[in-house]
# Entry
Amino acid sequence: MEKVKANEWVQNLKKLYVEADYNGVENKLRQNKDAYSDGVYYYNVGTVHIKKGEVGLGRYGLEKALIHGFQSPQVFHNLDLVREKIQVEDISSSGFFNYSGIERLKMFSFDNYLSFTLLCLIFVVWLMRFKFLEPKIRRVFLILLVCAPLLFQTFYLNKISFAVVLRKSQVYEGPSKIYSKVFELEEGSKILLSQKSGKWYLISSPSQMRGWVHEQVIGKL
# Structure
């Protein structure tokens, strides 16, 4: 019985796609969210928003799909289409710093970094036990080196927040609309956030977009 219901639901979803009833598709997806893995769900929702012309929400969904491990070629293809459409130099095209590499590192959980650190520590202790590491300075250096990934994740990666601009909006000199407008953010742009003040975030990168933006117009990743 459950299988029949699932088949009926999939057929209804396909029918809505064919009829270009994208609002109907989105509603069906949200009603049956538990039927998908998070990555597949966000990919489908993001794709629907792109078909509706909502590039900000579309990119947000696709970026969330990648974060949740759904790294299908179609996701990257759709992201390329979004970047082509908005024609904005954002952090995804930065030549100064490899933000894509930082994003991949952020996908690993604290448990992953902790497990890796513990394994390396066990190896170092084993070397010390069998006197492969006699000088104390060398021991301290190796222990610090082993702990580096965990410290990097805790004190650096966790403080980095990426976001997607959900709709065209203004950037201000300070964390309020009483400040002067300094820039207009293009819908679908990807930005790097730093400090927060109330409901406002400071954009730290790209440098040409630096300023304060309200939390309502961005989707944090």
In short: The chain has three domains: 2-87, 105-158, 160-220. Residues 105-158 form one domain. Residues 1-6 have pLDDT under 50 and may be disordered.
